[in-house]
Structures are given as C-alpha cells and as structure tokens.
C-alpha cells in the first residue's frame, strides 16, 4: 500500500510540473519511480526512433507533431522527499468541454461503423469514446493511483505526469512488448465480457472467438514478416480488473534488441485497438470516430534493450487536465455487433477508472 506521505509527494510533484512516472507491473510488490530533472524531454515523430533508447515511453494512438512520442530519460530513480528543484512550466491548454448526450453520439458513430462492417469493407473496427467530466471535488491523482494499485494487481498500474501532456493514470492488462535479454512476449487480448461470480466467463460464442482470433492472426503475421520464431499459447479466458477477455500469449527470442523500435512499429496499433484491414481501419477511425484519442490506446511503460522492457497498450486510463477529467473506453465491432451490448461494454470498461474517483453526480456514461 502506498503510504500517505508518498501520496502527498506525488501530488506535490504534479503541482510542481515535474516530469516523472510511477508504475507497477503484475508480479511486482513495489512500484518503480523515474523522473527527468535535467535537459530537454526527448520526443519523436516515428516509432522506430525508439531503436536503442532507454527510458519511460509515452506513445499516442496516432503519432503526430501535436502528439509525439515522449521518452523520460531519467536521472532520478527514487521518489524525492522534496520538490524544490522540480518546478517547471505548464503549457497553456484549454480544458476539454464536458461530454453531453454521449449515448446519442455513440449511437450515431456506431451506425456509421456498422454500415461499413456489414458492407464488408472491414472485418473489424474498434469504436472508442471519451467522457469528460468536471474534476470531482477532492480528486487527488496520487490517491487514484494508490486505489488502482490496491484494486488491479493483474494489470500494469501507472501514473505519469509531463507538463507537455498533463496527468495520465491507468490500469491496463494488455502487453504490447515485454521481456528481457533473450525472452520476449506480446499478447492478443480481445472479446470483453463481464465476470461471472468474480471469475472469467468460459462460455464464449463465435463472435468472441472471431474477434480475438483476428488479433491473434495479426500478431502471427507481423512476427512472421520479421522472421521471428514464436510459440503461441491460448486463447484462454483471463481476468482484467472488473471484466475478462480471451488471451493468447506469443513468446519469442530476439537477436537484435537494439531494433525494438522497428518491432513496435510493426505491432502498433494492433486490431485490439484499431481494426482490419489495418491501414484502412486506421484511416477510417481517424476520420469517423469523432474525437482525438490522444495517448489513449497508444502504449506506455519502461523500455530498456539491455535490461527489462514492459510496454503496455494504454487501455483503461484517465487524463486529468485542469478542471476536467477524461475517461476512455472502446470495443471491437464485427458485422453482427449489437449497439446496446457494445455501449454497455464501454460502461463496464470505464468503471475501471471511475471507481478511482470521488463520487460525482454524473450518471449517463
């Protein structure tokens, strides 16, 4: 459990506009901390620019000049006791508008996506949404992270603050790339369902198996294209926070650890957050989803080619910016997807972060 003093320090670092991250991956007992207090914060406009780099990575769904990849190259590895030398400048950003009539807006987008799926233009599309609410009275990012730590031991939990992008907090179950030295893995995670008596649902229908199978097939192809020999395990039901998915694990060895950026460029975005065919689905989502995903459904975590790497898809997350808090969720659509079921799935996923906030009057989300 994160101590009260630690929580105070984290909130003070955010207030002082420090550049830092604190996170824990499944299996670890204590979170890790890194911060950069010296020099300019590195940023990149191409994923393969990460080749040979070491640090804490924050990458968006779409890399662009407005939303680049950031890399914390740390000179501090322990949580400080004071924030004196940390003070920085917060760039001016307008707070996003409060979300209104979200279900109606979601239904409109769902119909556009469903039409393309039924016409056979796409095999799968991921439709996501953002819900922006007033910052709840008494909201503490550090308290939210501590609550995530206590609730979601099976997920990577993190809090990252950069003056350039604000505060992001998450509890994400999906590995994009993880490993050390010779042993590496990625996962195909899809087909969300509610827990049954607190356990993962085992009775999956054809739609679930097809949805997860598309992600698994994509990873097989991407690894094969790069001549990476792998072993595949699954799919098996697995719990993630308050929901469950079907999960396959791909294990492999890498001869060129200095080229991790090239591999990441081939993996991101997977059909778990985008769709198929990949390039066409990506362009369709950017044009038709109706909002900017920003760093939601990008990837985040520690990268070290000569040590340990833990990079996760940034799924269950929130963004705190000024007087607003934004929650994110999405779901994979196939041609036989149902509007009400998909809406309810996004509600369930948003609950992962909503449970970390003080009570509010917001209900329709």
Ends distance:
30 Å
The biggest beta sheet, please?
9 strands, antiparallel
> DSSP strand (E) fraction?
25-35%
What series of H and E elements makes up the topology?
HEEEEEHEHEEEEHEEHEHEEEEH
Q: What is the number of beta strands?
A: 17
Shape: globular
**What is the residue-averaged pLDDT?**
91
User: What does the radius of gyration come to?
Assistant: 20 Å
Helix percent reads 25-40%
Unreliable stretches covering 5 or more consecutive residues: none
Lateral arrangement of strands in the main beta sheet = 3-5-4-14-15-9-10-12-11
- How many H/I helices? 7
Structural class: alpha+beta
Question: What is the structure about, briefly put?
Answer:
The chain has 365 residues and is α+β, with helices and mostly antiparallel strands. Helices cover 26% and strands 31% of the residues.
Walkthrough of the structure:
Helices cover 26% and strands 31% of the residues. With 365 residues, the protein is of the alpha+beta class. The strands form two sheets. Strands 3-5-4-14-15-9-10-12-11 form a nine-stranded antiparallel β-sheet. An eight-stranded antiparallel β-sheet has the order 2-1-7-8-16-17-6-13, with helices on one face. A hairpin with a 4-residue loop joins strand 14 (299-303) and strand 15. It is globular, with a radius of gyration of 20 Å. The chain starts with a helix and ends in an 11-residue tail after the last helix. The mean pLDDT is 91.
How are the SSEs ordered, and which strands pair?
Layout (H helix, E strand, L loop, with lengths): L3 H12 L4 E5 L7 E4 L7 E2 L10 E5 L9 E4 L29 H17 L5 E11 L6 H11 L4 E7 L3 E7 L2 E6 L2 E12 L11 H20 L4 E11 L2 E10 L7 H8 L7 E2 L1 H11 L10 E5 L4 E6 L3 E5 L2 E10 L5 H16 L11
Antiparallel strand pairs: 1-2, 1-7, 3-5, 4-5, 4-14, 6-13, 6-17, 7-8, 8-16, 9-10, 9-15, 10-12, 11-12, 14-15, 16-17
Helix pairs in contact: 1-3
């Amino acid at each position: 459990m994160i101590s009260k003093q630690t929580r105070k320090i984290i909130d003070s670092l955010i207030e002082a506009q420090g550049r830092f991250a604190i996170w824990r991956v499944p299996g670890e007992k204590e979170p890790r901390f890194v911060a950069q207090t010296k020099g300019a914060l590195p940023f990149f406009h191409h994923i393969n620019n990460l080749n040979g780099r070491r640090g804490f990575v924050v990458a968006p769904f779409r890399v662009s000049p407005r939303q680049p990849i950031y890399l914390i190259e740390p000179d501090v590895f322990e949580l400080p006791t004071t924030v004196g030398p940390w003070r920085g400048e917060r760039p001016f950003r307008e707070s996003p508008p409060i979300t209104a009539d979200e279900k109606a807006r979601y239904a409109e987008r769902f119909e556009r996506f469903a039409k393309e799926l039924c016409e056979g233009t796409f095999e799968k599309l991921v439709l996501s949404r953002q819900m922006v609410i007033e910052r709840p009275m008494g909201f503490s990012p550090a308290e939210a992270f501590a609550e995530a730590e206590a609730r979601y031991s099976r997920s990577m939990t993190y809090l990252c603050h950069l003056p350039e992008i604000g505060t992001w907090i998450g509890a994400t179950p999906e590995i994009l790339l993880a490993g050390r030295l010779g042993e590496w893995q990625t996962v195909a995670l899809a087909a969300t369902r509610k827990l049954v008596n607190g356990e993962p649902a085992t009775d999956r229908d054809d739609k679930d198996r097809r949805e997860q199978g598309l992600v698994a097939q994509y990873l097989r192809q991407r690894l094969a294209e790069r001549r990476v020999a792998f072993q595949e395990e699954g799919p098996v039901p697995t719990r993630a926070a308050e929901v469950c998915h079907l999960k396959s694990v791909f294990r492999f060895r890498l001869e060129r650890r200095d080229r991790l950026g090239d591999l990441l460029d081939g993996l991101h975005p997977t059909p778990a957050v985008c769709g198929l065919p990949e390039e066409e689905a990506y362009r369709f989502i950017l044009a038709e989803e109706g909002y900017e995903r920003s760093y939601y459904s990008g990837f985040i975590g520690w990268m070290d080619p000569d040590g340990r790497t833990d990079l996760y898809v940034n799924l269950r997350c929130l963004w705190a910016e000024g007087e607003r808090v934004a929650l994110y969720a999405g779901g994979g659509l196939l041609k036989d997807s149902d509007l009400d079921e998909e809406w309810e799935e996004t509600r369930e996923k948003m609950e992962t972060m909503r449970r970390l906030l003080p009570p509010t009057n917001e209900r329709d989300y």
